[in-house]
Amino acid sequence: MNTVRSAMALDYPPDKLAVSKYSILMAAISLHSTYGLLSSRTSSIEPSAASLNTCTVQQPRAALGRLHMLLHFFAVSALVYYRISNLIHGSVPLLSWGLITLSELVFAFIWTLAQAFRWRPVVRTVAPENLPGDEKLPALDVFICTADPKKEPVVEVMNTVLSAMALDYPTEKLAVYLSDDGGAAVTLYAMKEACAFARSWLPFCRKYGVKSRCPEAFFSSFCDDEREILESDEFKAEEEKIQVIYDNKKNEGATADHSKLPLLVYMSREKRPSHPHRFKAGALNALLRVSGIMGNAPYTLVLDCDMYCNDPTSAKQAMCFHLDPKFSDTLSFAQFPQIFYNVSKNDIYDGQARSSYKTKYQGMDGIKGTVCAGTGYFLKKKALYCSPNQEDEFLEEPEKNFGFSTKLIDSLQALTGKNVRERENMSDAIIEEAKKLASCTYEQNTRWGKDIGYSYDCLQESTFTGYLLHCKGWTSSYLYPERPCFLGCTTVDMKDSLIQLMKWASGLVQAGLSKFSPLTCGMSKMSALQSMCYTSCSRTLSIACLLYGIVPQLSFLYGVPLYPKVTNPWFAVFAAVFLSSLSQHIYEVVSSGGSMRTMWNEQRIWMIKSVTACLFGCFDVLMKYVGMAKANFRLTNKAIDQEKAGQVREGKVRFPGSQDVHDTFDSAGFAQLGLFYWRHERADQRRGC
């Protein structure tokens, strides 16, 4: 109740702030009077004569990859034959040879699955200049989720909100929604201050064509080059004026002409101990319902609270896929890369452009869809409700599927162009209905989290939901633009990084062992190559790494030979596998702009992840199955320790429990301990410090 009282006591117009006694805090700030009318339905898009995007198979990468697959397959097959034949017919120690053979079989199996990424890598480009006029673009929502103002600093969250509001997109068709599962009054107050600052910030960005529209980034040293380009007496005067407003949190000097802002909505769900709130998946589903009755945009951009928009044209770049008549009917989402800014200044623009992890995304993109990374993706809402070209299926028994909300069901019908009615402007009735949709009891006896919306069957809600979309027949695309569209901050502490990775590994292993396993369910509903990619994302490789890190060493101490002598012809097989694997890794790193040091760091980071966080993730799943642990959400600490961040930028890291700073990895390599959970072969590396 203290939170509610403090929120109600805010110096803010009563008609813009709504607070319930059940701590459902909903502030709908409608800053454009015609938003509800213009964004209530999907805009009618006429196909453009000019191409909106291109898709090109990467050569010679694809051809060389297939040739290497063939040669390496023969070498691995010979190695497996050597192991099994000696186990069956040779006089070798059964335990040590059995364990090492098991681990090598696992390595061979995972390697076979991972070759699907290399089968048809593609690169995409877009042409936003060929899009129809702004009046014909569809409406767009932006979903941002936060849960704890201590672990997710409010200033960073508001910078993300402001950068989303400043997207280069028709203002009347843009809405930004913030879900605050922490229900913190400070976050609600910060939303009010951000809205006030936006009245000056957005016109300033539009007037001078500012690209870095995150205030914190623009006023930092990261954007010195951009400010130098814009340098003029008029610009300097307005910049100083804006920075006074930003620093002092005042809104002096904003005129009526500058008040055209997107819709801004704050939501905090009702929570009760007796009702599961489903963590981030529950928050996203609540945002889907609330946004449906407020703006009902057909598309949404999902962002982590610390992942700000670095390129205002990202929305139009995504629309180059969603509005392309060639494959828009089956496209579910367009994924952009997840890139971090708090490693080193150079890594943002040139280092990330040659990162090697993108080869897997591009490889999966070539076989009808890349994995959903959880942030930085533009999603077609309709894909969460039905299969491609089967819009009517989710409208059958709508109350049973979506709950008893007439306004929500009408908004869903509007997504398909059926029974469309003009939506009313923001009103008290809409706010009250939104509170009902955000309540903890609304989803009872509905299909939310099962067949509708984000899935509740896995804590990796976005990745798992993206997998289910591909199972339904939806496709996705991946774009790696020259300028990063989204930038975030990664953990700079070894402990936080490993905890984050363990959380991801646990969720993926749990999904892989469930009834939704890509090897069983996936094979029957998607292409074999796509199913292989998803299966290779599991963390079973960590057990094989552990065996390989223990058995050979103990065997050596006890004088048990596990490998053929150099004079033995079979030694050439082991040497061939080693050199083949190493040459493949070197080629991928060098072709992406890396160095030999990059390759070496990736090898070490891969081993650290495999035998620590990924291994513990497997144990976590095991304990859940036997009832020793229950599902819980581990929120990553995004409050950056500046001292540790400085050490990382210098290429030094401090291991927990150690008083010494070790020059172990270069900065970007260390950051990769918390990067994409499914990149188990390599950690991304950029320029060494």
Structure, described:
- The protein has 689 residues and is of the alpha/beta class.
- 46% of the residues lie in helices and 9% in strands.
- A nine-stranded mixed sheet has the order 1-2-7-6-5-8-12-10-13, sandwiched between helices. It has a three-stranded mixed sheet with strand order 9-14-11.
- Strand 5, helix 6 (154-165) and strand 6 form a beta-alpha-beta unit.
- It is globular and about 80 Å long.
- Residues 1-48, 248-258, 344-355, 419-423 and 658-689 have low confidence and may be disordered.
- Pfam families: Cellulose_synt.
Instruction: Report on the biggest sheet.
Output: 9 strands, mixed
Mean pLDDT: 81
Q: How would you classify the quaternary structure?
A: single chain
Number of strands: 14
Q: Which spans of ≥5 residues are poorly predicted at pLDDT below 50? A: 1-48, 248-258, 344-355, 419-423, 658-689
Shape, per Cα inertia axes: globular
**Strand-pairing-aware structural class:** alpha/beta
Main sheet strand line-up: 1-2-7-6-5-8-12-10-13
Write down the Rg: 26 Å
Beginning-to-end CA distance, first to last residue: 50 Å
Report strand %. Answer: 5-15%
Considering DSSP H and I runs of 4 or more, what fraction of the residues is helical? 40-55%
Number of helices: 27
Subcellular location: Endomembrane system
Transmembrane segments: 69-88, 94-114
Keywords: Cell wall biogenesis/degradation, Glycosyltransferase, Membrane, Transferase, Transmembrane, Transmembrane helix
Pfam family, one: Cellulose_synt
